[in-house]
């Protein structure tokens, strides 16, 4: 069942009912100011850090779920409703939501009045703009009232939800003209405030939630809206809000627009005040003046559209498959950019309170967006590296506001350091910019202890070789990529963190996955060493990589597939010897991606075992059989019911590793078959089963052992976005940045006749025609650049900034 449709021309997903299976959301903002908005106008807004600089409140676990947002109520002679249906839920004569790239447009119509709510964050501004267009679609003159509503968060979202004895006494606002200023705690240690404005004269306002909503009402029936009159309340403690009341008279066919701006201002310490306890409003008024007219809003929307057109133009495909085109050209790279901005910090599944930016997460996210905006990738790499410790280990997370490591989670996730090599190599391959390696970067954010980025990479590599277990495999630490495989925790206490609790010191549990990752990223490190003239260091690295490859084949293969790990007692995990959890997806993907066992035959056996043991119609499950009881030596993975999350769920993040692994063996049909199983555009027709947005990936789909097989959870912010983009664009379609240039090596379904890729690379634009006259899956028979034959399959950068024609014939 479908609940909407793709509009590829406008790069939008059009939702035609407010009653989607779950709130289907979009993200506003590209730089420092962000908003989440659902198809019924729910969501929240923040500046840089969803925990530390939250502007508006949102209550997770609410009933109904998506209650709280930037709402606009229309009062029409005793009848009141909202254009997004929620929270009033009054029947609408017409409803439509259009989620676009960085904006959302919601239209509702009832009783001859149409209201369109357009929301976006303008480039270069720390503000969210909402334009409301109210139109009289009837035949008689109408006078109606429009009420805005936003509930302010008291900045620190965690404290806001917990410290009521203080917070219910601190709320402060100012109201002047048509602007409401939220200034809680501004008198003391804060230099920032929020404002909420409208570009018309108001008939009234409210800033106290109880006065507006009523003590015994909900947002579905605020008493001020039901009465059709604002109370002009001024918040003093309790819960501050922003609500404007506007009276509108419309002739038949007439429409009027109203521009609301919800923004964030920081003032220098010596410019905080106009007078005693009166905030300096000049910066806020300057922002408001830039969005006072429809022409200004239209101009800002045009800038936003041009920004996205530029980003998406870096890689475009023309094929005969509309679903493939829209995923590669629009929605997958869009999700990659959103995930880069957010990491895993703020969605409808991540509250923005419990975690910051992930070290491994952000490095993997780089892989999906580095071609779009490499200058921001460069900045992100240096930010990430600065949270590394001198021994090469790293904080697992850091806070985006401070860019310092998150002490609550700490370090000890032993795959983290290797991802820094992967992210940095991807940046250098894309840009050719080796100068990043000479940047001085702190350890543990300490400016008094710095080293070059290359030294950070060296310590990342050596962190693995300095932390090997009894079999010569890497020690797992608190966890490797799978944070729920906790081989050193041994937790029996409710509420104990599986990731940060280590009840047995000196753990010797080993990870076959980290071994595969080491062999996968190690050659990039060795090449970087060679580029710096460090041939001896490179040779030593290659020797250690080769040794790890042999150890993995000797101690990490179980006859038909790769083991997952060895536990604290030296027992195998992911083995035929186990009663449950006999085979895991992660090492099969990563080890084959690394080329381990390809020549010897183990790789082919491993992928056959994946297809036979782990495959389902909705994707590949993480392991089989699922765990039916709690295993003290395994930790969180065995706490989930069978088929969910890491306990045999379809963890979409690692499905593309199997896609890429299949291309290593030349299996183009199989690789694309797996791709289609989890790519959202291909799941649109089963949205009632899948439930999540049909335009972006989810982290998890319930596995074959679950009650609701095929149902997704945790959409938007997942490494699934970057890895699926890498799998389809680089491994299947086969256009991949390399140190020497642009590598062309497709691995596609044999029935394909061909396709065309436009790829911007180091300032040049390459229009690449892939032709498959012999209907093979893999192998480049010939390659020409502007009519001249090229030896091999790497296009060296031309460097003239022009458009170049490339013809590739497979065979």
UniProtKB/TrEMBL annotation:
It is an enzyme of class 2 (transferase). Its EC number is 2.4.1.20. Gene3D superfamilies: 1.50.10.10, Glycoside hydrolase, family 65, N-terminal domain, Maltose phosphorylase, domain 3, mpn423 like domain. Residues 307-734 form the Glycosyl hydrolase 94 catalytic domain. Residues 11-277 form the Glycosyl hydrolase 94 supersandwich domain. InterPro entries: 6-hairpin_glycosidase_sf, 6hp_glycosidase-like_sf, Gal_mutarotase_sf_dom, GH65_N, GH94_catalytic, GH94_Enzymes, GH94N_CBP, Glyco_hydrolase_94_b-supersand. This is Cellobiose phosphorylase. It comes from Paenibacillus auburnensis.
């Amino acid at each position: 069942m479908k609940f909407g449709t793709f509009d590829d021309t406008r790069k939008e997903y059009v939702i035609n009912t407010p009653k989607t299976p779950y709130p289907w959301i979009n993200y506003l903002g590209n730089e420092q100011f962000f908003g989440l908005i659902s198809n019924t106008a729910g969501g929240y807004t923040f500046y840089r850090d969803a925990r530390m600089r939250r502007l508006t409140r949102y209550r997770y676990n609410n009933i109904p779920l998506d209650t709280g947002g930037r709402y606009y109520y229309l009062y029409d002679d005793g009848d009141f409703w909202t254009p997004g249906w929620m929270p009033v839920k009054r029947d609408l004569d017409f409803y439509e939501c259009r989620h676009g790239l960085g904006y959302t447009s919601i239209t509702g119509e009832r009783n001859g009045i149409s209201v369109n709510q357009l929301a976006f964050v303008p480039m270069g501004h720390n503000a969210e703009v909402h334009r409301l267009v109210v139109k009289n679609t009837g035949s008689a003159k109408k006078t109606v009232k429009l009420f805005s509503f936003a509930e302010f968060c008291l900045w620190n979202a965690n404290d806001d939800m917990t410290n009521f004895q203080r917070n219910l006494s601190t709320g402060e606002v100012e109201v002047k003209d048509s602007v409401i200023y939220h200034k809680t705690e501004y008198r003391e240690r804060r230099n920032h405030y929020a404002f909420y404005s409208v570009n018309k004269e108001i008939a009234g306002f409210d800033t106290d939630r109880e006065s507006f909503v009523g003590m015994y009402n909900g947002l579905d029936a605020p008493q001020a809206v039901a009465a059709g009159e604002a109370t002009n309340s001024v918040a003093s403690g309790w819960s501050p809000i922003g609500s404007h009341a506007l009276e509108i008279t419309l002739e038949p066919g007439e429409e009027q627009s109203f521009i609301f701006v919800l923004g964030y201002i920081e003032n220098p310490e010596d410019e905080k005040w106009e007078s005693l306890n009166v905030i300096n409003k000049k910066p806020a008024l300057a922002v408001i003046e830039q969005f006072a007219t429809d022409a200004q809003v239209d101009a800002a929307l045009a800038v936003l559209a041009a920004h996205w057109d530029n980003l998406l133009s870096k890689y475009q495909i023309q094929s005969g498959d509309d679903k493939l085109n829209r995923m590669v050209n629009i929605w997958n790279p869009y999700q990659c950019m959103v995930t880069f901005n957010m990491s895993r910090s703020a969605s409808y599944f991540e509250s923005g309170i419990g975690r910051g930016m992930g070290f491994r997460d952000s490095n993997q996210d780089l892989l999906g967006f580095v071609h779009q905006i490499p200058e921001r990738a460069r900045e992100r790499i240096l930010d990430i590296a600065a949270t590394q410790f001198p021994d090469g280990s790293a904080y697992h997370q850091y806070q985006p506001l401070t860019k310092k490591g998150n002490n609550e989670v700490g370090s000890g996730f032993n795959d983290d350091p290797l991802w820094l090599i992967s992210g940095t190599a991807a940046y250098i391959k894309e840009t050719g910019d080796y100068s990043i390696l000479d940047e001085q970067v702190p350890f543990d954010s300490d400016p008094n202890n710095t080293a070059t980025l290359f030294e950070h990479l060296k310590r990342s590599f050596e962190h693995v070789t300095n932390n090997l277990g009894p079999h010569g495999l890497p020690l797992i630490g608190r966890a490797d990529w799978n944070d729920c495989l906790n081989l050193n925790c041994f937790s029996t206490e409710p509420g104990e963190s599986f990731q940060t609790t280590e009840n047995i010191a000196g753990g010797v549990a080993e990870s076959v996955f980290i071994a595969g990752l080491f062999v996968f990223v190690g050659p990039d490190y060795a090449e970087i060493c060679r580029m710096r003239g460090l041939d001896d260091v490179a040779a030593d690295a290659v020797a250690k990589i080769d040794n790890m490859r042999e150890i993995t084949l000797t101690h990490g293969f179980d006859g038909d597939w790769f083991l997952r790990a060895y536990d604290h007692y030296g027992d195998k995990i992911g083995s035929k010897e186990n009663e449950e959890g006999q085979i895991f997806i992660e090492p099969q993907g990563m080890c084959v991606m690394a080329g381990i066992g390809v020549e010897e035959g183990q790789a082919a056996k491993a992928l056959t075992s994946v297809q036979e043991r782990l495959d389902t119609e909705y994707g590949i499950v993480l392991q089989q059989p699922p765990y039916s009881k709690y295993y003290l030596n395994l930790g969180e993975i065995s706490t989930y019911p069978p088929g969910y999350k890491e306990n045999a769920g379809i963890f979409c993040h690692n499905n593309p590793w199997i896609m890429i692994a299949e291309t290593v063996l030349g299996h183009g049909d199989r690789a694309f078959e797996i791709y289609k199983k989890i790519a959202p555009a291909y799941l649109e027709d089963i949205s009632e089963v899948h439930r999540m947005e049909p335009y972006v990936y989810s982290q998890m789909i319930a596995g074959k052992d679950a009650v609701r097989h095929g149902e997704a959870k945790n959409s938007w912010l997942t490494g699934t976005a970057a890895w699926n983009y890498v799998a389809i664009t680089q491994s299947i379609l086969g256009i991949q940045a390399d140190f020497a240039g642009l590598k062309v090596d497709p691995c596609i379904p044999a029935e394909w006749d061909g396709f065309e890729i436009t790829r911007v690379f180091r300032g040049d634009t390459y229009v690449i025609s892939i032709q498959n006259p012999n209907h093979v899956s893999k192998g480049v028979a010939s390659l020409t650049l502007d009519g001249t034959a090229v030896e091999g399959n790497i296009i060296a950068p031309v460097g003239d900034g022009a458009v170049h024609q490339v013809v590739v014939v497979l065979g």
